[in-house]
Amino acid sequence: MTELKTTIPKGSLVLVTGATSYVASHIIKQFLERGYKVRSTVRNISDASWVATEAFKSYADTGDFELVEVADFGAEHAFDGAVKRVSAIVHVATVIGFSPDPNEVIPLTVAVATSIMLAALKEPSVKQFVYTSSCAAAAYPESEKIHVDQDSWNEKAVELAWTPPPYGPFQGFVVYFASKVAAEKAVWKIVEEKKPHFTTNVVSPGTVLGEPIHPNYVRSTGSWVPQLFRGETANLGLPATIVVDVKDIALVHVAAVLDPEVKNARLQVWGRHASWNDLLAILRKLRPQHQFVVDFPDAPYLGLSTDETKVIALLKKWGNQDGWRPLRETLAENIIFEKD
């Protein structure tokens, strides 16, 4: 097979923020498996030591993987040290607490994205920058039919996020959506005004499911299927959503860094429309001996659509993969740490 042309050669150092992140873990893994060195940030290096001593121990032992601490990741100059000598940056770390108070989430999320972009501008070694956004930055997740393109923004979430209390049950999600809108817009504003010396791309996932590569990575959306498996339904997300495998998301991030033809792109990586009942039906076949919760009340699928032709082509080009990973495999891998 012909070796693909890449923006940076194998052996280059890639910075991936948020080493304890479920999504970041797979991005780290795929870069390491392709022969790149990875530096990754954590808020507290003592608390996150398991990432290097367990999850990526073999790579840490050879010096191909390292952790660096960025305690206050929203502070000015927070990433100045972390970006030194890196060829590419994949910024995954964000504020995920689902607080309903926009003042606790939105300004900090923007500050983090701005801080690392400004740090990259001062580091001449940086050739590629990829920001992890969300499909919810482009459109509000509802049943109304909406087609998303390069110029779509979720202005509805921005408006609703600043609604005064008392807050509704999904306000934490709304604030998260709005934070991704504000942060991604801040990234593109810097691109427009500062004309960086590096290429910038954005990857916008749907709801990410699939394999946790270590028990400590059963978090964020990666914990939703295990919760569903255990019958813990109180904190699940929307009853119908768009689901995508974490390995597909990681592969698109890798492609967004390495592919010379991907420039200034907003890559919507959504996968499939599905409801919790769809996932339950597959889980029941995977573990027929397990006692599952009864089906939820029927929920309409989201009305969102987008053109994912370019993303599907990237999966083929960089992973020799025909479309999305099968949902059955995604769910089977998502519950590898669950016992009947």
TrEMBL record:
Gene3D superfamilies on file: NAD(P)-binding Rossmann-like Domain (3.40.50.720)
Domain NAD-dependent epimerase/dehydratase: 14-212
Molecular function GO labels: oxidoreductase activity, acting on the CH-OH group of donors, NAD or NADP as acceptor
InterPro entries: Epimerase_deHydtase (IPR001509), NAD(P)-bd_dom_sf (IPR036291), NAD(P)_dehydrat-like (IPR050425)
Pfam family, one: Epimerase
KW Oxidoreductase (keyword) present: yes
Record bears the keyword Metal-binding: no
Superkingdom of the source species: Eukaryota
Keywords: Oxidoreductase
Chain segments annotated as coiled-coil in the UniProt record: none
Family: Belongs to the NAD(P)-dependent epimerase/dehydratase family. Dihydroflavonol-4-reductase subfamily.
PANTHER family from the UniProt entry: ALDEHYDE REDUCTASE II (AFU_ORTHOLOGUE AFUA_1G11360), NAD DEPENDENT EPIMERASE/DEHYDRATASE
Protein name (database record): NAD(P)-binding protein
Organism listed in the record: Mollisia scopiformis
